[in-house]
Amino acid sequence: MSDVSVSEARTLLDSARRIVVLTGAGISAESGVPTFRGSGGLWKSYRAEDLATPEAFRRDPRLVWEWYGWRRELVRGCAPNAAHVALARFAERSPDMVIATQNVDGLHRQAGTREDVLIELHGSLFRVRCTSCSWRSPHTDTIDATSLATLPRCAPCGALARPDIVWFGESLEPANIGRAFDAAGVADVCLVIGTSGVVQPAASIASVTRAAGGSIIEVNPVDTPLTDIATVAIRTTAVDGVPALLGT
Q: Alpha-carbon distance 219 to 26, whole Å?
């Protein structure tokens, strides 16, 4: 991590009135949150791409809920790290700041990030929504996937509930991605932390800021597709880089 790059990034943040932050899996990896995709993402011979789909849920909701129950228990044992906490504290003194996360682990919330600051683009492991009506609700109970009858149900109508997560083949909630793009379009700085920069449309948030004349600060141990448009690239982990950058 270069002292020069950190100093340059701090100058940009100090002069910024509006800030949008995009976080990805890299910020939570240091809390012990496992990656559920790729070569290490198998569960009982299933890939995440085979289970996190509307088709899989229609075919076997019990199996899909069993997988999400297992994921919940793994994530439940993780805690926010110094990067999550630094962002939450920084947001308290930055009134025009938005944090858009691609993560579903809920660690930004646990770190104390305010509701009005946070956009969970891909949903949350700890929320459910009805498959029949518009009901949504926090849900932190242990999942009992022994039968269809024991799966989470909608409180108002009794229909089967599903994880409140954007699955493969589904679009992001228009209100969420719209809010993120709106914030990016007026941001003086977009701070990108621990994301590969390849998952769309979230990866375009930084490009929106850049196109509008704002600056991009990237915190990542490796180069990404966003590095070419970054004003400053800080080559370190989120835990080391974000607290140093934000001074928290």
A: 10
Describe the crossing of helices 3-14 and 238-246 by its angle, rounded to 10 degrees: 50
Q: Which residues face 22 on adjacent strands?
A: 100, 192
User: Burial code of 17-53, b = ≥16 C-beta within 10 A, e = fewer?
Assistant: ebbbbbbbbbbbbbbebeebeeeeeeeeeeebebbbb
Give the tens place of pLDDT for each residue, 136-195.
999 999 999 999 999 999 999 999 999 999 999 999 999 999 999 999 999 999 999 999
Looking at domain 1-33+80-122+171-248, its CATH architecture is: 3-Layer(aba) Sandwich (3.40)
CATH for 34-77+125-165, options being 3.40.50.460, 3.30.1600.10, 3.10.290.10, 3.30.497.10: 3.30.1600.10
Is 108 annotated as catalytic?
Answer: no
Q: Quick check: 190 and 206 in contact, CB under 8 A?
A: yes
CB 177 within 8 A of CB 201: yes
Q: Which residues pair with 154 in a beta bridge?
A: none
